[in-house]
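Model it.
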Amino acid sequence: MTATEVRLASRPHGAPTLDNFSVVEVDVPSPGPGQVLVRNTWMSVDPYMRGRMSTAKSYVAPYEVGTVMDGGALGEVVESNADGLAPGDVVLHALGWRTHAVVDGARVAKVDPDAAPVSAYLSVLGMPGLTAYAGLFDVANFREGDTVFVSGAAGAVGSLVGQLAKLNGAARVVGSAGSAEKVRWLTDEVGFDAAFNYKDGSVRDLLAEAAPDGVDVYFDNVGGDHLEAAIAQLNLHGRIAVCGMISQYNATEPTPAPRNLSQIIAKRFTMRGFLVADHEDARPRFLRDVAPLVKDGKLTYSETVVDGIANAPQAFLDLLAGANTGKMLVRL
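Modeled.
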């Protein structure tokens, strides 16, 4: 048997292209003591992976040129040398970008395929869900009655942030997205009070119109002009949770900081970056609160699915270009 894996062929300068990836066939590996062989069925592509394609210093090691990439994945155990794991178990792990993976038993988590669609463990019940939950409640210190602005609101994280805020008593939830279709999805299906297409004009003006009484919490997935607009509209003692800055990931030159950052003094707002890995202690609370909402249909989530590992590089490029609604997944 052979397996397929995606490798980093070269480091991109600016926006990545398909030439930066290679898809290769390899022998299926065998698990050693304490390990399992997993046949991956789903894998995730995520914006943070763009940073790992470069050598810039970051919070996670870069991908090495010529070697297989990795990321969140779900699969079925086909061979096990690890206690507590048997063939047929469905597991979550971090060795995506390949059809088969050998993983230490201690680094996989069994999931219940009957409790929810398995892909949900890579989206609403997985890393994106926990990111939204911890970022809103633990980082931004959301309070009932807050007005919340979410950039990149039609993405896997942003769409959940807005819904969790509404379900917990937000006075108003506003989102930005990159198309009229996404704006309609946010307001008509997801339940945002207002949303706008950031391509329609000045983000500052569009936000002021959508949130005329100001913003108490800004959940930042975009950075740049969105962050500047949020600061301008932020109320006294507002809070900003910085999850990502996708508008800057492909920049080849340093990007300017928000030109109105000095308002942090007059408005006494707080701005805090965070990584979901720092909030693993919140996972039991997150699953306790969010899993019933998913089961009862009270939390809407969307998945953009691309089939075939050979198409994973294009799925990643499409993600960076904003072609997804909700979580971008590759079905293997």
